[in-house]
Prior knowledge:
The complex is a heterodimer of chains A (534) and B (890).
Chain A: H1 9-26, H2 39-58, H3 62-71, E1 83-87, H4 102-115, E2 119-125, H5 126-129, H6 140-151, E3 155-161, H7 174-182, E4 187-189, E5 195-200, H8 215-229, E6 238-243, H9 276-288, H10 325-352, E7 359-363, H11 377-382, H12 394-402, E8 406-409, H13 427-441, E9 445-448, H14 456-466, E10 474-477, H15 482-485, H16 490-501, H17 513-533
Parallel strand pairs in A: 1-2, 1-10, 2-3, 3-6, 6-7, 7-8, 8-9, 9-10
Antiparallel strand pairs in A: 4-5
Helix pairs in contact in A: 1-2, 2-17, 8-10, 10-12, 12-13, 14-16
Chain B: E1 8-9, E2 31-33, H1 42-48, H2 62-73, E3 79-100, E4 107-113, E5 119-127, E6 148-150, E7 154-158, E8 160-161, E9 169-175, E10 181-190, E11 195-197, E12 204-207, H3 219-232, E13 237-240, E14 262-289, E15 296-302, E16 309-315, E17 334-336, E18 340-344, E19 346-347, E20 354-360, E21 366-374, E22 377-379, E23 386-389, H4 406-412, H5 417-443, H6 446-472, E24 501-503, H7 515-528, E25 533-535, H8 563-575, E26 579-584, E27 593-594, E28 600-602, H9 644-661, E29 665-668, H10 676-686, E30 690-693, E31 701-702, E32 705-706, H11 711-723, E33 729-731, H12 733-744, H13 761-764, E34 769-772, H14 792-801, E35 805-809, H15 810-813, H16 818-830, E36 839-844, E37 849-853, E38 857-861, E39 875-881, E40 884-889
Helix pairs in contact in B: 1-5, 5-6, 7-8, 9-10, 10-11, 14-16
Cofactor (chain B): Ca(2+)
Family (chain B): Belongs to the glycosyl hydrolase 13 family.
Domain Glycosyl hydrolase family 13 catalytic (chain B): 499-828
Amino acid sequence: MEVSVIGSSQAAICKSELVNKELRFCFxxxxxxxxxxxxxxxxxxxxxxxxxxxxxIQTEPVLSDDxxxxxxxxxxxxxxxxxxxxxxxxxxxxxxxxxxxxxAISVGLKALKLLxxxxxxxxxxxxxxxxxxxxKYEWEGYLNLAKMVQSAGLKLHVSFxxxxxxxxxxxxxxxxxxxxxxxxxxxxxDRSGHHLRECLSLAVDDLPVLNGKTAVQVYQEFCKxxxxxxxxxxxxxxxxxxxxxxxxxxxxxxxxxxxxxxGKIHGVGEFQCYDKNMLNLLKQHAEAMGNPLWxxxxxxxxxxxxxxxxxxxxxxxxxxxxxxxxxxxxxxxYSSQLLSHGNRLLSLASxxxxxxxVTIYGKVPLMHHWYKTRTHPSELTAGFYNTENRDxxxxxxxxxxxNSCKMILPGMDLSDKHQPQGSxxxxxxxxxxxxxxxxxxxxxxxxxxxxxxxxxxxFEQMKKNVSGENVVDLFTYQxxxxxxxxxxxxxxxxxxxxxxxxxxxxxxxxPEEEEEVAESLQTxxxxxxxxxxS
Amino acid sequence: xxxxxxxxxxxxxRRERPLCRCRTKIxxxxxxNFSPKLLxxxxxxxxxxxKPRRPHIIRASSTDTALLETFKSTDGFFKETFPLTxxxxxxxxxxxRLDKDQNQQCWQLSVGCSLPGKWILHWGVSYVDDxxxxxxxxxxxxxxxxxVCIKDYAMETPLKKSSDGEIFHEVKINLDxxxxxxxxxxxxxxxxxxxxxxxxxxxxxxxLVDYLRNDGKVAGAKRGFNLWSGFFLPKMLxxxxxxxxxxxxxxxxxxxxxxxNRQVEGFYExxxxxxxxxxxxxxxxxxxxxxKTAKNLLYLETDLPGKVxxxxxxxxxxxxxxxxxxxxxxxxxxxxKNKALxxxxxxxxxxxxxxxxxxxxxxxxxxxxxxxxNEDTWLKCKKNDFHIPxxxxxxxxxQPGQGQSEGALVSEKTVEANQEVSQTASSKGIxxxxxxxxNGISSRRRTKKKEAQESILHEIEKLAAEAYSIFRNSxxxxxxxxxxxxxxxxxxxxxxxxxxxxxxxxxxxxxxxxWYMELKEKAVExxxxxxxxxxLPPPTESVSPEGYMPKDLYNLNSRYGSIDELKHLVKSxxxxxxxxxxxxVLNHRCAHFQNQNGVWNIFGGRLNWDERAIVADDPHxxxxxxxSSGDNFHAAPNxxxxxxxxxxxxxxxxxxxxxxxxxxGWRLDFARGFWGGYVKDYxxxxxxxxxxxxxxxxxxxxxxxxxxxxxxxxxRIIDWINATNGTAGAFDVTTKGILxxxxxxxxxxxxxDKKGKPPGxxxxxxxxxxxxxxxxxxxxxxxxxxxxxxxxxxxxxYILTHPGxxxxxxxxxxxxxxxxxxxxxxxxxxxxxxxxxxxxxTKAERDVxxxxxxxxxxxxxxxxxxxxxxxxxxxxVAIEAKDYKVWEAS
Lengths: 534, 890
């Protein structure tokens, strides 16, 4: 072979590009000496011979691009159609707009590329990109990072983060925090009046509280600026954008404080309707409903953050005030506010990026604690009016469908049997419920895991959640970092990716495939020669 | 002897200047690049390879225009010359000769090199009674003219072109036979490339006297001899001779036969050396139309020596798909795998180089080729095929598919310079595996395929391991499964933000023996000048009087004064409102005792560590710890901070210093020597009010001129700060370096980076940047990297008005500059300029730099004219002096 003679790094990259394609199809199965191959893919691969050639010459992965954008529409996907992404470190771009751990990321990207991962997810923080002053955007760090991703031949999924992060510490924009100091009402508040400075209250979506602009306007300009700065990557390298919808980017109220330790039983959380503007909205709503007294505050008999459902009378499974007319009044208002907030932001995003081929995503949390109770208090405080006798997710799915957005569901690694004893939690049932709603409204689901875990059951659960009937269009593994690449974790992840990319059929079941394997291999060999010659 | 190979080895020495970083030297034996825009940085060009391919865009770049004109003027056809850059390994020799000078009086050591380059001999001596393998500075009489002192242990002497040879460089060192010099140690450095040439990874050692005695206690020396005796013996001529001055010679009982009281008589040796040299050639392609046949005639000529094969094809459209045209072909053409043609070029008559003529049908729009020199050496056009347009319609000059935007890329892409290099390096590693894979696939043999896949998996594992180690050494970014960490309260990196530091000593301060007392008398004055932090010299017992070679950490009686005097001093400083930084030398520590091999690596005092506390990768000290997590400081055992007991002891010690002496914070010496994560550990344990690390390495230079873009340099400092989790600031060496160039050469444009921000660390992470213009190493009586003389006040005008935490050097504040510096400090304090102040650069031109800080202070420096804009606010002059001026908003 002539392949080796040009010792340029470029050559290496094009080749790894090529190799990836191969790897996707040719990983040897465990316990099998045969190369397994997959029929649904073979046709595709044959067609792709030409693409390979182009690819090799141009060093731009045109092929997978087309696939990813085209592939979305089809419903009959199998395991290896799942596009696998890996999240970049949250603080990949530092607050001075340089790239943190650039070398590690670059090496990591290479490993992922060789592994056959399709792309990476990059969190774009409001507090970094628009840090200093309203409308003063600093995209350089993100542009550089995107360029690294592009150079590595990977796709990019961008997540807008309009919230702050605890660990690593990424605050809201300085100018927003300054406004918040004099006007704390722009943040959510709990019953004790404590303001949570993690994200803006959804009540200011349409209030001109940010130097005369509404939050939605500010988000919109952020999107616009992003789009113009990244226009050269839109639809090619950047394939998807997740719109930040609330705390942790998720569509919910910040009903829990801080990070709750896993393995511990969660409390129910608190309603977050006590900031000035939320109370205003509630008051108006109550007056309009003819019950002005209900508009003075949230439920007085709800437990606080870490208390259990039965602590007070609101969430009591039987005879709790959640079932009273007041309960209905409050919960429907509370959840509808969240829904319209989600609608505002998702429609903003789909309008803003409507003229690109980029797909818009929104993230819906998996508030699985207390799912097995009648009241589902964790979901209620988070803003999902989902109880034993009311489906709260149909409306959410419908809202996603209306805006042609796809839904990201985290926690695909969580299984019921590993929940703490007595927590009445059920991630699996909740996930199934949301997926049913999505199917009903034709909303594609994307998966995420909740944490980097070394325990095998997480990977098993994820596999289960993305295979068979459980169609996902994209799976984003969270996330790259020391632990991700640690010897305790990375081999398990490698296994996981390989199982992703190979079908669960035994090669012996596909005798007629042999020729085709050889043929397609031949094709790619030729293309590599051509690359040389060209 | 001459079979010994010499490998250029990367070697970091401490604190010398210029400190050459040779990271970009990781090159393959033969690499080839062609770029139309001559000599772009390899790392950068590799970036444009990944640019998305764009359809041809006609750009109004000057090259294009010029070419289009040529094209018109030469009757519709194309001619262009492409520079060809070929990196070649050239081999030469290092000569080492020891002989007597003309008068037969003095011995002379000559070191020469037959390769072109800017050669520097980096050398030192060992004395007869030396133990260990530290170097010493040679006596003045030995130093050839042009020598530069490197700290107190080495010299740098440039090799001069000797008159007789064309490229032969040589340096001669005179030896004094009466001195007790046992050996001369040296390495050769090429300043052009920054590469160090050693002998098998060690210093060259030229023993001058057979000083070896067998009393068993100088086993360190014995070791040195054993190492080298085998190496030198065959060509060394010894002569038994009485040497009165060498009284050690009398007790002789050496091993071997008659090695008694010998002295070196003469010595000559050669070592092969290899160096990469860039060779420039060019290729010219011209296309004309044959009027008779309407075919295109393409003429290709090049001055490349030797046999050149053109590997070529044609294309019909812009997709540049290779195709083989119909014959006839030029003579000796062969078809290569039905994909391309190969035509050897014919040597030109009587000249260098060769040429070829190709006749091509009209129907083809492009001629594609690469040049093949031998099986492993190909020349491409920026890693793409050369493409020569053949038709006039829509033809563009030969451009690689994605070459257009290189200029832009070069300017954008420097932040990741490090990473790019490593990328290049490791992608070369991958290439083999990929080749295997492709081979495996093509062979259709499953076993092979499997192997290939395994090798890819192996590669993935390697990459993952690398990523893991880098990530692990930076701030943890992953979500911790068990214990969510509290965000650390960061303040030690910045103090209050309003600090102004004074370095409270210089290189001579130890001389009086009562520095603490002297400084105490100045406490009030220092405070009244506006300082609020003072950095005191290292307080421990030390092998060197300045304190940077600590021995017993708990013994605080030093040449600066006693522990009680130190306590009194700190108390007095506190009384006048000054915070006190202790100079903590944590990287290395001098031993008290020798181990059984005679190596000095056993510590005494309260921290009686042994070899396990010493890093394992410095052979001089036979450490048994782990490998160093940073660069090594070669003059003393480097402490292995990865050992829990070491860290525990050091934390205890630092806490003791805080409690016992009352230090408020730390200045961390030689922070390059160990991982910043350990620094975080120490900072967390001692909770200082302020901490600053000395992370000093070389800026980037191209051909002896400092690069405008020093992003890679400041990134390294920022990486270190990051590794400390921001718990410590760092001296802004970048800013100092850039100020040097800007002031010395009147290039004030250097003071703005491409984003219009300050170009040093202070532009990226102002709150962690401790700006300074001089310290005890760079200036004082050492002068390793002295600030341009007479320009100091401009330097202070810059750092005292800008964000970051400024540090003033003792020698400057107690000099005739005092009143000017004091004025600048008071301007800073009056306007509450702090480490995070905003800076807007309003002018950065050849002869003037101007900036407005926090919209409250305006400053300019340089001879050029500048007045702050007076539309929005009015300015009053606060200080005006030679070449700088500061205004305050009024």
